[in-house]
Amino acid sequence: MSKFKKKTSASQDIPTAALPDIIFMLLFFFMVTTVLRETDILVEQDIPKAEQLRKIERKSLVSYLYIGKPKKTEAFGGEAKIQANDVFIEPSGVMLWVAKEKDKLAEVERDKITIALKVDSEAKMGIISDVQQQLREANARKLMYNTRQLTDLQKAGL
Amino acid sequence: MARSKSRASSEVNAGSMADIAFLLLIFFLVTTTIASDKGLTITLPPKQDDVDIVDIKIKDRNLFKVAINSADALLVEGERMDDYTQIKDMLVEHILNPNNNPELAESPKDAIVSYKTDRGTSYEIYINVLDQLQGAYYEIYGQKVGLTAEEFRTLDLSNPKDQALYDKGREGIPMAISIAEPSSIGQ
């Protein structure tokens, strides 16, 4: 009987010395994967939901355009505007912007550029079609409408 | 006696280290916004000067017409529709035409969707309807190779096996969704 008692009293607590290492590993993972947003979004972004989503194959080929009502309506008015990088541009400026974005890519990949449109739900099709016409002119024909995933639960609630 | 004392405190108490790391971890977890690079993909037609304008006659039965006006009211195949979720099933039937209905597409290859909006149409409904139209095609592609629409969409194209499945599914049925330039009534 005394034999058993001795064994159990050997060590009762779990060594926690390695726990910080594990947590640090997780921490580094998240620190490395976190991408801090480099542009301030100046327009409202209530992205619509859709079901049939596809992923972008290569992220390096993507350029973003943000379209929506400006957040500061007193300064920029209530009409939907196009934001590229940090500034508002007119639809006529899209072609120049595309040319600049294409310049950032390697020469062989310039025609594979994908334009991702992040558009507010309340925007009208007029501005979208203006942009699309310009993109056609600029020969950036791969287009993606960024959307969020519509879940089955939300679908049932429709 | 003195020796044993120094021995006892020789280890740094690392128990709270985990707490500190946890705090940092939670901070990064909360601030991380995983970029959602997902969405509906389309390819725009080439610019007009590049292509010779050829008058191609498309038979009316092959066309599946969807139009939305500036009040977001839907017109599908000449009839008003309130619930856009029905479009998917209608389009699947239109493309495959299992009963050889003379009013639906001659063959899946000939089927064309004409999607027209107005400048005043809201973007949300445009996306919702486009979602339905693309969904119909993915469902057909998936069915052809024995996958669900979702499995077909998420095929990894860098994998040759998946690529083969993808090509097989799309074979002979082009995703012909023609997005017309919007009319400018609602502006």
UniProtKB/TrEMBL annotation, chain A:
Belongs to the ExbD/TolR family. It comes from Marivirga lumbricoides. InterPro entries: ExbD. It holds the Pfam family ExbD. The keyword Methyltransferase does not apply. It is found in: Cell membrane. It is a single-pass membrane protein; Single-pass type II membrane protein. This is Biopolymer transporter ExbD. Keywords: Cell membrane, Membrane, Protein transport, Transmembrane, Transmembrane helix, Transport. It comes from the Bacteria.
Automatic annotation (TrEMBL), chain B:
InterPro entries: ExbD. It is found in: Cell membrane. The keyword Amino-acid biosynthesis does not apply. Belongs to the ExbD/TolR family. This is Biopolymer transporter ExbD. Signal peptide: none annotated. Its main location: membrane. It comes from the Bacteria. Keywords: Cell membrane, Membrane, Protein transport, Transmembrane, Transmembrane helix, Transport. It holds the Pfam family ExbD.
